[in-house]
Amino acid sequence: KAGVTQTPRYLIKTRGQQVTLSCSPISGHRSVSWYQQTPGQGLQFLFEYFSETQRNKGNFPGRFSGRQFSNSRSEMNVSTLELGDSALYLCASSQDSTSTDTQYFGPGTRLTVL
Amino acid sequence: DQQVKQNSPSLSVQEGRISILNCDYTNSMFDYFLWYKKYPAEGPTFLISISSIKDKNEDGRFTVFLNKSAKHLSLHIVPSQPGDSAVYFCAAGRRDQGGKLIFGQGTELSVKP
Question: Where residue A96 falls among pLDDT bands split at 50, 70, 90?
Answer without folding.
Answer: confident
